[in-house]
Amino acid sequence: MWRDDNDDIEKLWRQFIIKSNRFPCVCPICGKISAHVYLHRFKENKGSAWMWCSECKNCSHGTMIIPTWWCDDNFIDLSKTASHPDYLESKKESIDNYVNGILDNI
Ligand SMILES: [Zn+2]
Hints:
By secondary structure, the chain is an alpha+beta fold. The chain has helices at 11-17, 86-90, 92-104; strands at 25-26, 33-43, 46-53, 59-65. It has one domain. It binds zinc ion (ZN).
């Protein structure tokens, strides 16, 4: 179902870092407004990040340098996350609202 072999989805991360998007945003692969980013800090500047598109199902997950302005949420159960974003997809509205709230307040 999910595809993780197209690195173009990682353009979402660069757009996220420069705060140029609100979510959902335009998918760099299929062009639909259905792309999401979620991240969680593990310690200091290191954390885990997911980027995915609900339409074309391209996704990426990896360890990233987490921006200093990022604050972790308290509504995602990290024990339910995995490499592919099935659980995150089920929470995408809450995630998008949370991410947009941070981006609008920095
Ligand atoms: Zn897409």
